[in-house]
Structures are given as C-alpha cells and as structure tokens.
Amino acid sequence: MSYVLEVKDLYKTLGKREIIKGISFSIKEGEIFGFLGPNGAGKTTTIKMLVGLISPNRGSIKVMGNNIQTNKVEALKNVGAVVETPELYTYLTGRQNLQQLARIQKSITEKDIENIVEIVGLKDRIDDKVKKYSLGMKQRLGLAEALIGKPKFIILDEPTNGLDPTGIIEFRNIIKKAAKETKTAVFISSHILSEIQKLCDTVAFINNGEIQSIETINGNYNENTDNTDSNVTEKFEHVVISTKEKENCIKILNSINYIKNVTENENEINIEITEGSVPKLIFNLAKENIPVEEIYKKYLKLEDRYIELVQGGNK
C-alpha cells in the first residue's frame, strides 16, 4: 500500500531534552488523521518537522516518497497547511488573496480558484474584502489557500480555534468534502476530542513524545451511547467477545449478575459489564470451558480512550 505521508522512527532533542522518542505513523490518500495529546506531548514539534521548519535528530519523513531531509523542495510541493488563524491580506478580497498565490504558483488557473472557492463555500463572499470576513470565513479562505495548489497532504493545527459551534460544524463538513473530492490526506491536531471523533478516520494518541496507540475511529467509538444518567451510580464497560460457541456463551453470560446487557450479531457478542469485572468474566468463561477467541473493550467515546491512554499510559 502506498502512503502520502510516512514517518519512521522519528527522534528530536531540543537542548538536553528529548521531545520526540521514536514515533512512526503513515497516512493514506484521502485519509483524515487525528493527532491527540496534552500540552507538551510533542504535537507542535512534530508539526514543525512535518513542514520542514526543524529537522529530526534521527528518523525519516517522506511525502509522496520524497524525503523532507534530503529532497525538501519536492516533498514540500505536496504539502499545504493551516496553523490556527491563517495569515491573509485583509485589505484585499478573498479572490485577490488566492490570485496572489496563483502568481507564485504558475500552475494555478482561474478555474482552479473557482473550484476551490466552491469546495470551501465562499462563492457568495469571495469578492468581498477579507477585513469584512468573520473568523469562520477567514478559516475557510486559509483552507482554500492550503488546498489551491492541489497538495497531496495538508496539515491543520487547531483549525477550529475561536469558531462558534456553527463555524465548527461548517469547517468539519468542508474538511470532509475536501478530503473526499480532492483525495487529499489530512493531518489534524486539535484539543476538541468530540470534533476529532466526528471528523477523523484514524487517530494517534501521543504523550511524552511517544505514540501510545494508533486506532481506527469508525466502528470503535459510538458517540450516540452515553452512560451519564444521573440516577445510575454503577458504571459499566462495553466488551466484545468472539467465540465459536456463541449459544453456550450467551447462556452463561445471561446468568452472570455483573453483566447488564447481552446482544449478538453475526460474528460477535456485545455485553455491558460492571466496570473492573473483565478479569472475573475471563475466569468464569474459562471455568465453563468456553473457547474465547477474542475479548476486548469497546470504547463509546474518544474521550474515554484518550483518558486511559494519556492519563493511564496503557497501550
């Protein structure tokens, strides 16, 4: 499988402190990749290396097969970025801002400008002066600037900072549309976990300069389920069991008092179990000679997984 971005065994030391400690990840064409971690985890340092502002001490970064360290110009031809509030010429119109880029990148045509304006939803305001734009509109124009050169890879660092809820929803939809229509790989760093959950295909959790886990979001997190009923004092975990003896397993599960719900589909059994009871469940199933092929927790919210990995440090 070919990747737009390949990061391998990346290390970075600033002063005497090792900031990045051997991280590796890859992003495919059209994939939206979330990068999550607390302040000081190494997110900003990683982004600076991805755009060639600083160099790693060890490891490699490749964009479309081009190594940023040895072939920087070719690698960065394929990279666009929006870092918080984009830098814009406020005394010019939105269109004129894009035309300034077209003068630098000779391959950009008026048709390209019209297409990107359509994608970011600025068609009705593109000929207004940027000083009249709302923050959300400026973010859209910044995204248009990042996309107009048809990069294969864009980096978004806290792109929804300062946006109201409507602006956040609109920006999220634009990113999804851009990734789908232009097949651009997207790397997004944000503190808003709910937005990452709704936006991304894959997420990496980084803490203390190390990636704790890289996980697919679709199918692993169900944002519509919540155990926050104020009348419920007992906490439950959601667990998935795979076994060839489903019938016997379900019969046993239904007789166990610390299991709340048991449901099944074609390949697996889903249960709600009292928090902390998984080891006891494994013991009980083994005692009943149930051949369990796989058992794992199903996280209902990205926030749950973030807290476990970043605060608990479990992989």
TrEMBL record:
SMART domains cross-referenced by the UniProt entry: AAA (SM00382)
GO molecular function, one term: ATP binding
Domain ABC transporter: 5-233
InterPro entries: AAA+_ATPase (IPR003593), ABC_transporter-like_ATP-bd (IPR003439), ABC_transporter-like_CS (IPR017871), P-loop_NTPase (IPR027417)
Keyword Iron-sulfur annotated: no
Gene3D superfamilies: P-loop containing nucleotide triphosphate hydrolases
Keywords, in A-Z order: ATP-binding, Nucleotide-binding, Transport
Pfam family for this entry, one: ABC_tran
PROSITE patterns in UniProt: ABC_TRANSPORTER_1, ABC_TRANSPORTER_2
Family membership noted in the UniProt record: Belongs to the ABC transporter superfamily.
Protein name: ABC-type multidrug transport system, ATPase component
Lineage, uppermost ranks: Bacteria, Bacillati, Bacillota, Clostridia, Eubacteriales
